[in-house]
Amino acid sequence: MGLSENQKKLIQSISQNDIIAAKKCAIACVVEDTTSKNSWFCNKYKTILESSGNNMIELPHDLKNILCVEDVSNSFKEGRYYLSVRESAVFDNIIRMKKVNEKLMEMGIPYLNSTLLYGESGTGKTTFGRYIAYKTGLPFCYLKFSDLVDSYMGSTSKNISKAFSYAISNPCVFMLDEIDCISIRRSSSGSGSSGELARITITMMQELDKLTNDIIIIGATNRKDRIDEALLRRFSLKHEVSVLDKKEKIEMVHQYLLDIRMNFPEFEISKLVNNIENQSILLNELIRMIALKIAEQVA
């Protein structure tokens, strides 16, 4: 008996290192098998594959305090995500380079699909990384350097290497958040804490150089000016994520409300937007307003 279409798609997804798509194809494969001899096997693994829990992917014990890896295929709500024209252009470039990298990989040419996002806190840099993972069907792998340095200052380089080794083995969107915490511009003294950070910066560059074409790197920082120049050159695209203007914030609120099928008077939306500049705070305040409205309805 020949391969079914779902089995073909499963093999194709595995060959492309698309873990999330492979999982969906595997579910389809067990569903299409209606034979009684395989019913126990199919029911067991269908349940396991469909159990998303909180969408966090189980990590080896030595990585649990270093990395967070998430399957965003179900948790990310695309209809509620506002993508500005500026970030839309960045998204298009990342997707284009993903396709280019597939061709380069066939030719044995290494190339890093890497983007550095910089700008004020609360402008949505991490959420943009999740959006990329959602649209590409890849796991979202999140490494926050401020936590890593605070907890593991004496062995930060070793833990960075562990995190990158995981990414190489599990193609993903690899989010390097608060990268300025470990990659300050190197001084000539090379002693004390500055010497340690210089060694960590070198480790970072070495690990980035090892990455394969099927990994998408998204770096994020509020302080691009602090990052070592040699590390900056590892990012093929550097993009400033700016605060949304009033028109964009209103569009963002309308898009969110449309997705949940809820309305607010325009004067309330205008007041909300005028009083809050940071879009992360704006979103939190919008959710609070939604919760209060629902509370009134169920009272």
Would you give an account of this structure?
There is one protein chain. With 299 residues, the protein is an alpha/beta fold. The protein has 3 domains: 5-50, no CATH class; 61-240, 3-Layer(aba) Sandwich (Rossmann fold), CATH 3.40.50.300; 246-298. The chain has helices at residues 5-15, 19-32, 39-50, 72-75, 85-106, 125-136, 145-152, 156-169, 192-210, 229-232, 246-260, 266-275, 279-298, and strands spanning 68-70, 113-118, 140-144, 173-177, 216-221, 237-240. Strands 1-3-4-5-2-6 form a 6-stranded mixed beta sheet. Helix 9 (192-210) links the parallel strand 4 and strand 5. Helix 8 packs parallel to helix 9 and helix 11 (246-260) packs across helix 12 (266-275). The chain is globular and about 65 Å long. The model has no long low-confidence stretch (mean pLDDT 85).
Mean pLDDT: 85
Straight-line distance between termini: 61 Å
The secondary-structure element order is HHHEHHEHEHHEHEHEHHH
| Unreliable sequence segments | none
SS summary, helix count: 13
- Assigned CATH superfamily of the largest domain: P-loop containing nucleotide triphosphate hydrolases
- As a percent range, the share of helical residues equals 55-70%
Strand residue content: 5-15%
Would you count the extended β strands for me? 6
CATH architecture label of the largest domain: 3-Layer(aba) Sandwich
Give the C-alpha Rg.
22 Å
CATH topology of the largest domain: Rossmann fold
Q: Which outline best applies?
A: globular
Strand order of the largest sheet: 1-3-4-5-2-6
> What is the structural class?
alpha/beta
The major β-sheet equals:
6 strands, mixed
The tally of domains stands at 3
Classified by CATH, the class of the largest domain is Alpha Beta
